[in-house]
Amino acid sequence: MKHKILAGVLALSAIAAAPATLVETTLAQTAPGSAAPGYAAPDYAAIVAAPDRSEADRKLDTNRAPAQWLAFIGAKPGMKILDIFAVYGWKAELLARAVAPGGQVYAQNSDAAFARVKDRLEARLKTPAAANIVPLVRVFEDPAPPDMHDFDRVTFFYAYHDITNLGVDRARMHKALYEALKPGGELVVGDYSAKPGAGTSVAQTLHRSDETLIAPEIEAAGFKLIDRGDFLRVPGDSRDVHSHGGAAPVDIFLLKFRKPG
Q: In terms of C-beta density within 10 A (0-12 exposed, 13-18 middle, 19 or more buried), how is residue 47 classed?
């Protein structure tokens, strides 16, 4: 009996002395498919600097601060994330790296969007870094599989203005995003900013969104605005030119909403 007690004490001592990464990995394995309580955030800078990332993706990193972006989202191992308008997967792959091990990213595109990016997205899905990405082809008003209502995060970046252009029922979409999240889950939205008060008037002409319109629309679905990210702000952007019209950095707003619960 004494030997068994001593063995147990030694085992606990070994766990306490183990490197943090080993302990965190053990925690993640105890709760597959969900973020383990107390699990530390990954090294976002190391994720962005991973040598197997493509040169095309590294070019897209420019003026987007991907490490800070991942930190603002709060992506952690074990999480389940729904990425809206994923296109060819630059965002989805970064998120997939951040939620590994144990997490998954569902990369949603509409039929029309998927048709444009099919080859590039499918090529990405064959890489090891995309092993935990699940592609979805669904309408924006119903973007998640009907049996899924437990996402930790929903992300929607750089394309909210397209939703207006496409005539999507935004109120219906916001309700669907709300229902897809688990209680306490978060929706993180970012886009190229228009001048306050522009409404939807420049969504097509300048490919920009008015955050003073977006925030109330999303809160109307039951969300609570809890944070704003200012690290992609560009005070010198006049916000009266096309968001893809030149080499100058474009002002980008980020909004984080939470589903109560």
A: buried
Q: Distance between CA atoms of 240 and 77, rounded to whole angstroms?
A: 40
**pLDDT under 70: residue ranges of the chain:** 1-39, 247
Q: Which stretches of 126-159 are DSSP H helices? A: none
**Reported pTM:** 0.85
Cα separation, 84 vs 82, in Å, equals 6
| Spatial separation of the C-alpha atoms in residues 57 and 130, rounded to whole Å | 13
Instruction: List, for residues 57-89, the tens digit of each pLDDT value.
Output: 999 998 899 999 999 999 999 999 999 999 999
DSSP three-state, residue 36 = coil
Q: Give the amino acid at 102.
A: G
pLDDT at residue 38, as a whole number? 52
- Spatial separation of the C-alpha atoms in residues 142 and 76, rounded to whole Å: 25
C-beta neighbour count of 237 within 10 angstroms: 17
Cα(190)–Cα(230) distance, rounded to whole angstroms?
A: 11
Note whether 241 and 205 are within 8 A (CB). Answer: no
Residues contacting 4, CB < 8 A, separation 6+: none
Q: Is 151 left (phi over 0), alpha (psi -120 to 50) or beta?
A: beta
Residues 6 or more apart from 253 whose CB is under 8 A from it? 190, 191, 193, 209, 211, 228, 229, 232, 233
